[in-house]
Amino acid sequence: MNPADAGSPSGTLPFPVEGGQRVLREILAGGQSFLWEPITATTWKGIVGKHACTLELLSDHHLTWSASGSTSSKEDVKATIESYFATSIDFAREVDALPWRSDPVLNQAVGQFPGLRILRQSPDVALLSFLLSPLKRIEQIRAGLLEISRRWGEALDHGLFAPPSWATLASVPEADLRMCGIGYRARSIHQSADYLSQQDGYLDSLESLPTDEARRKLIALPGVGRKIADCVLLFGYGRLEAFPIDTWISRHMRESYGLDSFTDDQIQLFARAHYGSAAGIAQQFLFAHARNPATGSEVDTSSDKRKK
What value does the mean pLDDT of the chain take? Predict the structure, then answer.
């Protein structure tokens, strides 16, 4: 890999992306984060914290990274990058514990996206991202977030901008937010920013709370319902038991599991009982599969390869 700048912190992440380019695209641009864009089929640029980062997928499916323009030590940058990619979690073990052996729907989804993992973003970025999500496609969410960041965020290297703080957004009139093409979502962002800028440490305090209590605290924020709260819990707080239900998942669960008469609340109960403590990982496989149904393949259950 050629780092963007000589002397930039760089390294290799300690896991392979088993499914190669297709799975890497799903990790970075499949609805978890909205701050990455491809440079080539195997190279991506994006933002982790306050770092402008470049990723390169090697032939052995490992990822190298470099972070440019950072004033932090290499050790601190490395820790930030590894935290973002949740390297402390053994995703192979978590996936292996899911009921894919007896569930043909999940089996096909897992087989289609080997190596899919959940990112661990900052709660602030996750909340801002998913406040943009109601009735929006992934590309539209990304466009809105990038425009907000360009207007009011911190400039990084390579033309990238970190998302702004809640204090900064609280000072932005709702009308100006609407000029970013986000419509009525501007009100929720403005009101949440106003509240969070006056409640120092509100989102940080949720780290230590049980998931159900943290969810209630998130839902108390303007514009946050169950789906957005669960997205923030899963992608911002690493609560793998959270199971966000959007239009894709709601339809996919009803059609694939015969849950036609189930409400979303009932689907939540089904997911918790069926998938267990890593229901959020199952959700991400199902979300990827629902949007890309034609390229599915099944996990080979004749040998327990997934345990290796």
Answer: 93
